[in-house]
Backbone:
């Protein structure tokens, strides 16, 4: 692995981390406001997290 | 009281099975001798080799009397050569992967280079390589072998057929299943009521529940098999995940109704000059982006999981000089134990997400719109 590869991988992980943090944080707020909607919020959260993860993995694999 | 006891027993059994799965996952590391695999390069080679499909089950190797011994079991090689179908066992290659061992069958010569079977040209006695390490006097053949992944797919197919047909039979006699069926029933209901019904809609979900259940259990069991020391990496093969994604593509393409295709090809409610542009985007989304996101996610997650687990196991070789043998082994044991527990969760989560997104795409295709 060369240095640009490692820096790129780091950037991808930072981006994915920010995205996942936002998704998780908003879901927590939503659940705290409306505990009865927990199930629906979790489902939507997992779907969006999966989409984000697919993007991040795609970038990581292209980078290597 | 009796029923309660029995169900507790079932749960305990399931828990034990899960635990043994996670514990076994570390065995390959222990069975490798440290003398051979101590450089980073060799660890890397081993991980790359594991991620690829192979023609035999290779459990571990060891060195005795200066000779490398391999432990595993062979699988049948079936190739379509220039003179028709040829079959033999992969043990005839003697674990060679560099084109040194030549197998003669029916006047034809075969060899294996980097997990691919090559047929030698007539008159050639051994493989000649050019500067880029490509074989010059041999060509690839159509390979229909029962490889490790094919074996895994067939095994899971058989397991699922036996497990679910016995579960289905039980419902003919009584309403409550017994034995292992009690573990399967809540999962089946979960897929139907939490994945299929809300995403596809009350009216159509029954038609697609069969496919969703099949794909869910297929991926989940294969993911869990990947955590055992047998070295399966079936859901980490692009061919397998691509095939599953194409199934979903065919299903939501075939079941798309008039409203759905109307929205894809000629989006209502936007200016006319935007409609062709949207049609191109929607078509790309339908035929490329949706299946691509399905196949890349599953492949990347499972491959990445395998790489992480194996890299953490490899800590005991790579950090041996810095941390001493006890320190490196302890560190790798602790880290790989917890990451394997996470992998058990990921195995379920990826099966769930694949099924969920399939249901979502199918639901989009069959959704009925209100006309105003």
Residues:
């Amino acid at each position: 692995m060369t240095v640009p590869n490692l820096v790129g991988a780091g950037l991808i992980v930072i981006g994915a981390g920010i995205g996942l943090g936002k998704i998780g944080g908003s879901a927590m707020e939503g659940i705290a406001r409306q505990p009865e909607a927990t199930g629906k919020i979790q489902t939507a959260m997992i779907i969006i997290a999966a989409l984000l993860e697919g993007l991040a993995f795609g970038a990581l694999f292209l980078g290597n | 009281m009796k029923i309660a006891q029995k169900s507790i027993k079932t749960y305990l059994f399931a828990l034990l099975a899960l635990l043994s799965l996670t514990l076994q996952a570390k065995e390959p590391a222990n069975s490798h001798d440290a003398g051979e695999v101590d450089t980073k390069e060799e660890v890397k080679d081993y991980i790359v080799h594991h991620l690829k499909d192979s023609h035999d089950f290779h459990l571990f190797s060891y060195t005795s009397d200066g000779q490398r011994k391999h432990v595993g079991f062979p699988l049948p090689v079936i190739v379509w050569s220039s003179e028709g179908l040829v079959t033999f066992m992969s043990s005839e290659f003697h674990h060679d992967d560099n084109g040194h061992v030549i197998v003669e069958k029916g006047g034809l010569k075969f060899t294996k280079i980097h997990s691919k079977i090559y047929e030698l040209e007539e008159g050639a006695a051994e493989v000649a390589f050019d500067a880029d390490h490509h074989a010059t006097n041999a060509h690839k053949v159509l390979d229909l072998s029962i490889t490790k992944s094919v074996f895994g797919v067939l095994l899971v197919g058989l397991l699922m057929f036996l497990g679910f047909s016995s579960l289905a039979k039980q419902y003919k006699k009584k309403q409550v299943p017994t034995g292992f069926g009690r573990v399967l029933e809540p999962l089946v209901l979960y897929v139907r009521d939490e994945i299929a019904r809300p995403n596809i809609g009350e009216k159509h979900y029954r038609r697609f529940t069969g496919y969703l259940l099949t794909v869910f259990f297929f991926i989940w069991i294969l993911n869990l098999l990947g955590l055992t020391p047998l070295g399966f990496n079936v859901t980490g093969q692009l061919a397998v995940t691509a095939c599953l994604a194409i199934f979903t593509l065919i299903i939501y393409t075939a079941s798309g109704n008039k409203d759905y295709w109307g929205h894809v090809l000629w989006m209502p409610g936007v200016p006319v000059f935007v409609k062709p542009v949207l049609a191109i985007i929607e078509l790309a989304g339908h035929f490329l982006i949706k299946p691509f996101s399905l196949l890349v996610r599953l492949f990347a997650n499972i491959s990445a999981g395998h790489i992480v687990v194996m890299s953490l196991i490899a800590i005991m070789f790579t950090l041996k000089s810095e941390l001493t043998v006890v320190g490196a082994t302890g560190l790798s044991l602790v880290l790989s134990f917890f990451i394997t527990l996470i992998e058990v969760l990921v195995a379920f989560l990826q099966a769930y997400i694949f099924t969920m997104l399939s249901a979502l795409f199918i639901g989009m295709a069959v959704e009925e719109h209100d006309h105003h």
User: Anything to note?
Assistant: The first strand of chain B starts at residue 56 and ends at 64. The CA atoms of residues 26 and 247 of chain B lie 34 Å apart. Residues 18-37 of chain B have pLDDT under 50 and may be disordered. The longest helix of chain B spans residues 320-366.
